[in-house]
């Protein structure tokens, strides 16, 4: 089952980037902002956690990376412990003995899950001992990979590789376990909604994901904010802990960076930087001047 545990970190945010269509935006902008500190600059980059290997990062990202002495990501990508991460996943994702995913979902939803999982090349029985949230993440990752998206080609993975070569340190806004617990502690009702949402999303993903990547590439913050609001409206109890609550926890950590002499590149999922109660919105409400690049 190791392939099911691999690279779970960030897949949750990738899920949020695959929910609706997008349109063209001002090509001069990117999902990238700058924030001026007392003696430094902090860049805020909206990431897509899975990309196609052929996708080139915009030059503005390369420039921000080159200017920054240090990187900050959702989790500390250069110090991940895969053994501990797998233990955490098993502890939080496995159902209690005697319970099954089929029992959790009920016959109607489980039938839809079965159809989708088999279409992606995995037998549903392989996930029958796991909680709905883990099954949902698995389906989304498999669907994205089927469409040609590679976890190793995502923005964080690419920048982490560069940082290792260049000797630039990376720090995390939260630990891998903290990130995992956000979804693992969702009530059972929300977990079932999460899985149903994932099944429905996977069915339309093929026709929409290219448009979403184009919107990210073109800096279409307005459309991404609209996408996020649609998710909030439909699944508020799912989106709130995944986005708004985390945004609020990150603000003090980002503000501390403004007291440093080093320039920073902060990399988080793109939907954390757009719309009401986003990191950008919360910083602006606190009086910070944030400029989209």
Estimated radius of gyration: 19 Å
Question: Helix amount, in percent?
Answer: 40-55%
Secondary-structure content class: alpha/beta
Would you identify the regions where 5 or more consecutive residues have pLDDT less than 50? Answer: 1-27
List the main descriptive attributes of the protein structure presented here:
single chain, alpha/beta, six-stranded mixed sheet, 14 helices, disordered N terminus
Characterize the structure shown.
The chain is α/β, with parallel strands linked by helices and 293 residues long. The protein has one domain (2-292). The chain contains 14 helices and 6 strands. The protein has a 6-stranded mixed beta sheet with strand order 4-3-5-2-1-6, with helices on both faces. Helix 4 packs parallel to helix 9 (176-184), helix 7 (132-146) runs parallel beside helix 10 and helix 11 crosses helix 12. The longest helix has 30 residues, at 188-217.
Q: In terms of topology, how is this protein built?
A:
Elements: H1 2-5, H2 11-16, E1 32-36, E2 41-47, H3 59-67, E3 70-73, H4 82-93, H5 101-105, H6 107-119, H7 132-146, H8 155-166, E4 170-172, H9 176-184, H10 188-217, H11 221-234, H12 236-242, H13 244-257, E5 264-269, H14 279-285, E6 290-292
Parallel strand pairs: 2-5, 3-4, 3-5
Antiparallel strand pairs: 1-2, 1-6
């Amino acid at each position: 089952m190791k392939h099911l545990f691999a690279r779970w970190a960030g897949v949750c945010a990738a899920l949020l980037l695959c929910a609706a269509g997008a349109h063209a935006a001002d090509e001069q902008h990117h999902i990238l902002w700058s924030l001026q500190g007392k003696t430094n600059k902090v860049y805020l980059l909206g990431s897509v956690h899975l990309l196609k290997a052929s996708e080139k990062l915009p030059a503005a990202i390369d420039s921000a990376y080159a200017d920054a002495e240090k990187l900050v990501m959702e989790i500390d990508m250069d110090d991940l412990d895969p053994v501990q991460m797998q233990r955490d996943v098993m502890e939080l994702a496995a159902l209690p003995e005697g319970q099954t995913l089929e029992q959790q979902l009920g016959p109607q939803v489980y039938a839809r899950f079965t159809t989708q999982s088999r279409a992606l090349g995995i037998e549903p029985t392989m996930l029958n001992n796991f909680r709905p949230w883990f099954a949902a993440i698995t389906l989304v990752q498999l669907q994205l990979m089927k469409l040609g998206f590679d976890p190793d080609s995502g923005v964080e993975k690419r920048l982490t590789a560069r940082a290792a070569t260049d000797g630039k340190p990376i720090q995390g806004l939260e630990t891998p376990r903290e990130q995992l617990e956000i979804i693992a502690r969702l009530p059972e009702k929300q977990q079932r909604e999460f899985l149903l949402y994932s099944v429905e999303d996977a069915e339309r993903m093929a026709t929409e994901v290219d448009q979403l990547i184009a919107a990210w590439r073109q800096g279409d913050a307005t459309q991404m904010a609209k996408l996020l609001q649609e998710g909030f409206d439909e699944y508020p109890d799912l989106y709130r802990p995944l986005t708004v609550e985390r945004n609020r926890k990150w603000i003090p950590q980002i503000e501390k960076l403004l007291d440093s002499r080093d320039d920073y590149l902060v990399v988080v999922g793109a939907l954390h930087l757009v719309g009401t109660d986003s990191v950008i919105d919360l910083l602006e409400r606190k009086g910070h001047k944030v400029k989209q690049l």
